[in-house]
Amino acid sequence: xxxxxxxxxxxxxxxxxxxxxxxxxxxSPAARSATTASLCVGAKPGCFASIQAAVDAARDGDxxxxxxxxxxxxxxxxxxxxxxxxxxxxxxxxxxxxVVTIGQFEGDNGGLQVALxxxxxxxxxxxxxxxxxxxxxxIPQGSGDATGATVxxxxxxxxxxxxxxxxxxxxxxxxxxxxxxxxxxxxxxxGIANSGALTLTNSLVSANVAGTPAITDYAFxxGIANSxxxxxxxxxxxxxxxxxxxxPPNGRFTEGGGIExxxxxxxxxxxxxxxxxxxxxxxxxxxLDGGGKQLADAGxxxxxSGGSARISGSTISxxxxxxxxSGGDAEALSGGVDNTFDGGTLVLTDSNVDRNxxxxxxxxxxxxxxxxxxxxxxxxxxxxxxxSNFVGNSISAVSATGIAFxxxxxxxxxxxxxxxxxxLVTGNTGNASSGIFSLALGGGILExxxxxxxxxxxxxxxxxxxxxxxxxxxxxxxxxxxxxxxxGGGGPYPLTVSNTVIQGNQPDECVGC
Length: 513
Description:
Number of helices: 2
Number of domains: 2
Largest sheet: 14 strands, parallel
Strand content: 35-45%
Distance between the termini: 46 Å
Low-confidence stretches: 1-36
Number of strands: 59
Structural class: mainly beta
Helix content: under 10%
């Protein structure tokens, strides 16, 4: 996916193998017998001084034990090996861009199986011009856009890494953006960029960043980016405090402060918390003409076109989306989970989507539009929710001299099919503040369309209560549920409610039920 990585030739791979054979035959302190299946890195006699030297000397199936201390990153692994640290607190791999690369870009990675455990991977900076992917760990795609290596990361910490392009695409390598190449740069997967089959277990992905101030126009996957070739499984892990962020003059789009998914993803018994998706821009953008010139999206988890996700037994909480545009209308959506636009399919079970927030704001004297929606979950694609809670999510749109719109503080359905079974939607709040006109709809749930596919919703054995919408320049509607067109005629849309309590919402219970 990274256009600026050159594909290594088989001659280079052969040369590395020859170099490894020379190490085996040499009389260095780390020399080993042909039958030894374990190497070591560290200060002990007979150990390699660096991880890369040990990897170069290893053969498929070997284990590399890494002692306590801090070791140089920038490690490339092109063999099926297991790297084992003392613990994440004791064994640190630091620096490089990325810190660890597993496989070769568009190489023969199909049979590569690599395991990392008991490590902290930190201080990585991938600043490749144009497209920078994977500050901490990069698992590139195989040849012919095939899935890359099979990788497991266990009992480890991926922290404080960056995917931050140092320059935009050049004239000789035009970028994929809908802007001139000298304004186009993409940061992806601040902690991990995966185009392989990755399983993350009992690990922490924290304080990573996708995006470069002023340079990047599109940043996604602050913690983890899973490509269309990728399969990502997150088990008993935490993805927290990661950030996808852009700023003027180039900044336009952010998605997936915690995780961005273009492929196949499973999240079980994990926490996605405190991540952020932040746009500060100076971009002409008109929602009345369809918008789409800039957007802040998905503080926690984002599904992209073709992606699919199953999330169970997990908490997605305290994630934020923020958009401030001083040159046009501001759009912010989906504080917790996003499955909108050309997203994929989502099944969410036995999970909590709590205290996520969405904020859109324009300059006080601009007369521009601020649009904030979908505090907990936003969707236009097929989504099933079972035995899950949406509690305390919030949305806020502020335009002192223009129009402010807030919709769907708990859940925003803008098209496609949503099924809610045994769901609790409570304590979600929305506010639209304007000196001209405000529109505040759907404190618990908003069902509407923006011109795409007609929405359809089924709610069974659920509770929608204590949600609230407010607006200072127009009457708020649908404190519990709003079902209908945002402006003008249309709606209500297909809605089936059974064995469900809708009460205690403000200013009313349900419009369009």
